[in-house]
């Protein structure tokens, strides 16, 4: 097919001619049908009219059988105004010709059955009966010419063909002119499109007018401006990227990826790379082949470390990544290369530093191990010294208790000795008086004095025995730390009795609020040492400072398994900065004045260790201190040792 038919003008011409032809063909068919129907209608009217005339002429003459007059009538009728009537034949009942005008009776055609065929043949044959008073007396056959109608149809067809040819010619001229103008405007649009494809966005399409092509040109110019803006943005982003980037392309003409664009960072790093430069990147051929294989298979490239040659000619490590995409049947690949030479140098320096640090750590480990050995030796020495100090503290506590008990025993024993001496003297005096003779009143006085002396002697000796028994129980408990069952109130009473000398020389008033039903399975010796140290601490640091005088010991049950022991004084209190240190070993506010700093440390270790409890302290300056000790009624199962803190 000629190329002209592929153009818009050719297509418009073909469309116009085909459309015009279809319209004319439709017009011709419709007109022909109308003419044929009109002709058939006129023919039917002519047949009726002619039939009436012939029957009116035949009837009077056929009765009288005056066929000669009828012949003249038929001749006149055929040659007269009715030019379409070609022949008339009258037949009798036996189909014998009676009168024939315009045709030989021997050549009489058959009557026409198809109107359209008869019209096409140029004559229509009609045969009808001749009736007289309702009775058929014969038949008449006549022929009507259709040549005028056929001629009319032919002239109409010729006219329609002429009109069609003129219409086609005019349509062709108009469509050619219109198509040429459209072609010119589309040519401008194509030139502008080609300019845009080549990267020239300055080419604009004239958009004068108000038709659709003008609107298309205006929208094309807007699209061109938008594409120019998008390309400028892309190039700005592409060139502003801080890492080197390459845009590669492959299509049907170039089945392998070739360089299409290169950003500024890439030019600065690798120099100007042209399409003729071999390989995708400035690396070895094997690396380029590997990259191509990966990209063809995966359609992308994950971060891969490669050695690339830079503009200076040296090779540096880069981290290369890429992504493929498709635009208008062309495949594109964008590659980004990040220089990691500084990172590799830093890693090498870090590895060297790590090796140096490992050596230093090894050396320091040796030094620390030596220091740890020294510290272990020092710690063992300190622990040994601490044990000795704790033992000394225990012995000091027992010594103080022994001194106090001895002082307490002096009074009852001295009283008993005085009473016994007086009793011996009175007995000697009684013996002398008995020799001389005694009166009844003297004997009664002597007996009364002896009874009183005996009572005094027994009372003082019982007091001394109670002191000795209490001291013995406390001493045994302190020295052995044996576990046993006991009433807590009994142990506290014994402790209070053994600490009486401390309170006698002080203005402190000791009071107890004890639950007599509390029974424990624990270590009475360490518990007594705890209570003794707390009472001694209250006297030394609370009451002796001149503030307050009351010390209260309370016991109560917390639940069925635990009790609460409280030792409270209304003395000077503990400064807030010392509250967190009072249980530390060797912490004391009376350093150089006889305080060792181990009293409350021993209390803490005994309560939290051997006795399995907890201790807390609450204090406020000027209002005193309170030590709260929660203990289990059954001490934890652990072996009692004499050196337990």
- Derived from helix and strand composition plus strand pairing, the structural class reads alpha+beta
* Low-confidence blocks of residues: 640-645
Distance between the termini: 119 Å
Alpha carbon gyration radius: 73 Å
Strand segment tally: 16
Instruction: Give the mean pLDDT.
Output: 77
Secondary-structure element pattern, one letter each: HHEEHEEHHEEHHEEEHHEHHEEHEEHHEE
Strand order of the largest sheet: 6-5-9-8-7
Identify the quaternary structure here.
single chain
Main sheet, how many strands, which sense, barrel? 5 strands, antiparallel
Query: DSSP helix count?
Result: 14
- Can you give the helix content as a percent range? 55-70%
The outline comes out as elongated
Question: What's this entry about, in short?
Answer:
This protein is α+β, with helices and mostly antiparallel strands and about 650 residues long. About 55% of the residues lie in helices and about 20% in strands.
